[in-house]
Amino acid sequence: MAFTDFDLLVVGDANPDVIVSGAPRRPAYGQREHLVDTGDLVLGGSGAITACGAARLGLRVAFAGRVGDDPAGAFVLDALRRRGVDVSACVVEPGAATALTVILADGQDRAILTAPGCLGRTSAGDVPPGLLARAAHVHVSSFYLQPLLAEGVPELFRAARAAGATTSLDTNDDPAGRWEGLEEVLPLTDVLLPNEREALAIAGVADLGRAVRELAARGTTPVVKCGAEGAMTIVDGEPLHVPAPAAKDAGEGANDAVDTVGAGDSFDAGLIAARRRGLPVRRSLEVAVACGTLSTRAAGGTAAQPTWEEATS
């Protein structure tokens, strides 16, 4: 492959996350105040977390997305820069509000409340054409939160592939629950990165092995995140399952998960980094699972993302 300025270009969402742990399942209204265990203001957004994780793993990373010209947008851009991510292609929209997410965490479960702000106006046109020619891999996040971007992903991926880049997609959740619009996208997607629930929904089946086969038949390679159970993909027409590492093998503190927010995005970063380094399929999944596991050591999606040495030791 010809020389590129960036190993990875991430196109997608970036926003502050307010993570509240120990919140009641049914918050009391009527101006009642409830004390919780912890509250953290951290960098959020699937795209931003993936970008930071990849940079932490040693990749040269650029991020293209959209924020408002408000304090939340400044927070996002500063956080990305401090983690070594190039944000020169990020659009700062005058007079607009940056997306904001509040996460109510209860152990391993969470409720996610997002005010989309200008996120819905992110489009493939926000990506400078010359940037695609400078990236070896293009990753798109949060397909269903960015309808204009979703419409343009096929064209974006065609242009990326024409420039010699590989592609990946993490749809994340579909708030509408329809899971539509992927027919043209999947054959242009080298790697699809859903979690188990998303894979079943996209494939429209109830069995994960069948879902992996169904998604592969649509022209992509699915790599499914299965949480504490590891990950699954397909090799030579057969599902391949890689278990999560035992706590003692996952690194110091990995057996005491503090926060699972962003673990799937750190998994994405690990998978992309491993593929860029030319690792075989099973080893790439092992690295990705380790990255997701290790990221849970601290609150928020980026605070505990591992280095390449940590992920592979």
Helix content: 25-40%
Number of helices: 9
CATH topology: UDP-N-acetylmuramoyl-L-alanine:D-glutamate ligase
CATH homologous superfamily assignment: Ribokinase
| Poorly predicted residue ranges | none
Biggest sheet details: 6 strands, parallel
Broad shape: globular
Task: Quote the distance from N terminus to C terminus.
Answer: 29 Å
Reported CATH architecture: 3-Layer(aba) Sandwich
Alpha-carbon Rg, integer:
18 Å
Strand content: 15-25%
Tally of discrete structural domains: 1
Output the structural class.
alpha/beta
User: What is the CATH class designation?
Assistant: Alpha Beta
Order of helices and strands: EEEHEEHEEEHEHEEHHEEEEHHH
Protein name: Carbohydrate kinase family protein
GO molecular function: kinase activity
Keywords: Kinase, Transferase
Domain Carbohydrate kinase PfkB: 8-307
